[in-house]
Write a structure and sequence with these properties.
The chain is an all-alpha fold. 73% of the residues lie in helices and 0% in strands. It is globular, with a radius of gyration of 21 Å. Helix 3 runs antiparallel to helix 7. The N terminus is likely disordered.
């Protein structure tokens, strides 16, 4: 196999050809992992359960959003949609990365030219397609079974598209960064779930954010979930629902600005952290982790 160092005279790298190779290899691997996901009943059941729980909750909500004639169930649907995107990017991806690191996948990839970039492309593709598929299933099922809202007109669909895209760009790199630093898959869920549940309750996803104290609103505004939910509400709810927003408007320019800032921060964190994790991986570290897991009973001896 040719290394990037051999692609140009004098030992210099030729970035264009390797980059295309990594992307192609990543998409091929991502396609294989997507097929495995679709054939894995346990994995599919988990995603379908999230959608089913969201539908059951909104089916039993009959009140309107205070100060508007918008059904509270519609506001909660937009919030659940944002939370599912947030959860898949910020929880599922780190769990996959940490689990496969424990199994030695990262160590094996170090011996493959371009293996780690292609691996990351594949994982990001898997997470993005899973998130978008889950979102589409939730919105269509809610519209058919519970009278849930769908975007009205080209503007609503365009807003749904760019908010979903920017939202995933904001959380997927953060998920990759977390996967690079979390110690093991057994602790990953515990370390991530508690902050995520706090954000679920404080970001205006399950009830209007204006019902929360102002300091809580300000703290939630720092994180992407609040803006993802607000952007999806603007795509799914009528303009009259803006009265329930803190600023009395959807603030779409601020939604775009905050999500873009988180996307940039995530990429700046993820790339060096993943490189550091790959450099530190070794056979002795892997063996030590396996011995520790066997001693704790988390892995069969």
């Amino acid at each position: 196999m040719r290394d990037t160092q051999e692609d140009a005279p004098g030992g210099t790298s030729a970035p264009r050809r390797p980059a295309r190779h990594y992307w192609r290899a990543g998409f091929l691997r991502g396609g294989i992992e997507l097929r495995h996901l679709l054939r894995n009943p346990k994995e599919m059941f988990g995603h379908l359960t999230n959608v089913a729980v969201a539908l059951l909750v909104i089916a039993y909500i009959s009140d309107d959003v205070p100060g508007t004639r918008t059904p509270m169930a519609h506001l909660m649907l937009a919030g659940f949609a944002a939370y599912l995107l947030f959860q898949i990017g910020l929880l599922n991806l780190p769990q996959m990365l940490v689990t496969e690191r424990e199994e030695g996948a990262l160590l094996r990839l170090r011996a493959t030219p371009g293996g780690i970039p292609a691996y990351l492309v594949a994982k990001c593709l898997l997470v993005v397609v899973t998130a978008v598929g889950t979102l589409a299933l939730l919105l269509v099922a809610a519209a058919l079974l519970a009278g849930g809202p769908l975007p009205q007109g080209p503007g609503g669909w365009l807003t749904l598209l760019w908010v979903t895209t920017l939202g995933l760009l904001a959380v997927v790199p953060l998920g990759a960064a977390l996967g690079a630093v979390l110690p093991n898959p057994r602790e990953a869920l515990a370390l991530i779930m508690l902050p995520m549940m706090g954000l679920l309750l404080t970001s205006g996803t399950v009830f209007p954010i204006t019902s929360l104290p102002v300091p809580v609103q300000q703290a939630a505004s720092v994180f992407p979930l609040k803006w993802m939910a607000q952007g999806l509400r603007s795509a799914l709810l009528p303009d009259a629902a803006r009265a329930a927003e803190p600023a009395g408007s959807w603030e779409l320019p601020m939604v775009a600005l905050v999500l873009t800032a988180w996307a940039v921060l995530g990429f700046l964190l993820a790339i060096p952290l993943l490189r550091r994790a790959a450099r530190r991986e070794s056979g002795s570290r892997l063996s030590a982790r396996h011995r520790k897991a066997e001693q704790s009973g988390a892995m069969p001896a």
